[in-house]
Write the structure tokens for this entry.
Amino acid sequence: MSAYPLLCKLASEIALLESTSATLGWEQETYMPPKALEHRAQQIGYLTGKGHALFTAKKFRLLLEKAEGEELGPVACANVREWRRLVNRATKLPQKLVEEFSVASSRAKAAWVEARKRSGFAPFAPHLEKLLQLTLKKAERWGYDAEPYDALLDEFEPGAKAGEIATLFSILRPQLSMLAKEAVARSANVPADALTGEYPVAQQQQLNREVAASIGFDFDAGRIDTTAHPFCTKLGPRDVRLTTRYDPTDFTSSLFGVLHEAGHGLYEQGLPADDYGLPSGTAVSLGIHESQSRLWENHVGRSRAFWERWLPRAKEIFPALHLSLDEFLRVLHRAEFSYIRVEADEATYDLHIILRFTLERRMLNRELKIKDLPAAWNEEFKSLFGFTPPDDARGCLQDIHWPMGALGYFPTYTLGNLNAAQLYQAAQKDGSIKQACERAEYAPLLAWLREHVHAKGSTLSPRELMMAATGEPSDGRWYLDHLRTRFVA
Amino acid sequence: MSAYPLLCKLASEIALLESTSATLGWEQETYMPPKALEHRAQQIGYLTGKGHALFTAKKFRLLLEKAEGEELGPVACANVREWRRLVNRATKLPQKLVEEFSVASSRAKAAWVEARKRSGFAPFAPHLEKLLQLTLKKAERWGYDAEPYDALLDEFEPGAKAGEIATLFSILRPQLSMLAKEAVARSANVPADALTGEYPVAQQQQLNREVAASIGFDFDAGRIDTTAHPFCTKLGPRDVRLTTRYDPTDFTSSLFGVLHEAGHGLYEQGLPADDYGLPSGTAVSLGIHESQSRLWENHVGRSRAFWERWLPRAKEIFPALHLSLDEFLRVLHRAEFSYIRVEADEATYDLHIILRFTLERRMLNRELKIKDLPAAWNEEFKSLFGFTPPDDARGCLQDIHWPMGALGYFPTYTLGNLNAAQLYQAAQKDGSIKQACERAEYAPLLAWLREHVHAKGSTLSPRELMMAATGEPSDGRWYLDHLRTRFVA
């Protein structure tokens, strides 16, 4: 009897457990009453533990070893290869280290919340030091060739290397920096509140729904709900949930939230449903996932063609909206330097990422001491943005990633931006796609992404996927072209 | 090592699985997109199977046997006793019979849907015959002293006997029948559409929420959502979900739905949270559960005192509402004979139940052949209501209970009505409760129910609970008194 189908069956069972956890997690963020929290945490912990136990059990590993000796088709081979990578990652860490990390991360998060409130880095420093030490232990266990960062990155962006990213970023840095400065200067006469008005939530929901449906999001296999922070989660092979939040004085806040999350959602809806629970039915990396959200949010959703179609409709829905198309686009393309990454616009966002990548790589290589992080942050920030954050809350304490112990995550945001631009330009080479996009019709673009990105699941590595779809690995020039055209042309 | 705490631990694990299934089931009815159905069914099936396997495994039974020999406190004793009853019920059926029944019930439901559409009983008859045969096999396996009905009833109303219910019902029948006729005659001049108006859903939700909160429903540990059919479900020790549906032309439809389900919800919120997953933290029977919903819906929610407080508020919320208190109460207490049980009012509802109990008992005793069911239904119906249904869709095919194979369920509705009246009058003996109810303040009434009903969980049988709370077993005279006062006084 072949081991491969038995592995698929186990993987389906794990997927049932994980998708149930995801459903409970979604409900916790959307509808759950507050006193239900403790029991919900118990449920999710129980199901997560069961899924992890199945995946790391001897049974799975023995079957995997057997399957590695079997003659299999290309998709099955890819699944076996990816399972091996994931099983290694899941089993190479001793249970004690996993638990120690989990405790340290909980404590660090609590200390971070306090440190942010009082804006003092010092009491948080020992927690970050502890997390860094444990993270380095994890990296040792997982193994790496060049530097510990690579072992961490592999969780989010399989196959990517910190050295390659550093090269990419060193090319981007001066050009992005120059570009951002010019974009900010050109926006000086666009008032920050040009859009401010009355946009009732029910009407925003109407527009968001129409827009999401028009780019191809299937509402028979998904929903949009309201949460404090927008996200996208998959609850089953035909069940993708988006969330957004509403600012009743600015409809674009919820709308771009929806476009971003719908980009993630279209990827999830486009993965092969029959392979649900297998690597071949699973998104390949954060850098590819983010490319889909950024493509729909920025390349489509902030384009002139898109608003030629949608501004008249938005004006029907919102009587408060009176801007002309040119005025409206100037607001959408307004650039401004800000301390806070999550509030940054398209023109300045990646500078925030480059800063974080540089610093966390230096921390992991033990070139930067934790106690020196605030000073290093402010120095890098000044070199990138030209001014200094007023305090650490608006500086090195602003993100939850490090307190969670998620080192190696940040560069996937910029990889997503590069990939979005590169995939978008590759698709535009097809004249019929380009012409449809100019009419704000996106079915041909979506079909291209379905074929070249979504349908692949994890059968190709992110690098292989970009090669196959665009003819070259991730590169910055398409993104720089895009930013130049949009912001300084 | 004592076996009892190990049983409690296993029961907690089973409760985690079951409450997760319940959460998925709630989400399926409230928010789930249609294409997600198949995966959702797989998730629920998987979790249900895991929970059932844990409960019926040798490990649980061996621990239970050991615990039965241990010296335990009264609550632990009650839990062990109830586990024994439940384990016996769960393990006495051979797997083959369970599967055969599940297949037969699926087929019967499909045939029933068809039969209802075409209003033809004949093609449904063989399915009901098959279900009846399998139901009798189940009853044989479970065992009974007097008649098969008792074995079925025990699932819904532990310890109840069909013979006792028959005696209760034979006393009720002539008096209810007379009472119903008089109530219907007195309502002749109350128009059916006296309340019809415009009641926007958002405003209905506002009133429903205020009313539910005022009777003590804790919205930090629960919610109200919208579904095709109202229900109440518990998702965790501090998480109770109510649902209702909205008729935009009649606000009382959703409001009484909420009052009914909130009655169930108050019971669930009042069960000892620390005993969640144990019999001592679980509702004891359908007849007690329904007593709580009917108490709040009918004894509280249709009382003059309640509307003295709430009609002015309803008029603030709904400008369309213009009836005086007396006019409004006449509409609420309007009685009418109808073919359909679920549309029946308080004065006529139990006649529908008596009809069903009589017929299903005769079927189970093999005194009534399936092919003769429609004729027997119409004959009984005529004797109770004075006229004959025009077709089987409005006759013996109207309910889903028999096609599902849920024989022995119906009498719990009327037991609920009797218990509601009996508990309500017992509570009213306390003058401070009575006075508070007259001011439409229900905290003292709820406190009484918490102490005498909710806090007991399943540590007492339904009969013991009624004895302890009211001094006598379930009896019809309090209910008849209530109906007389309300409808013919």
Chain A touches chain B through 33 residues (CB under 8 Å).
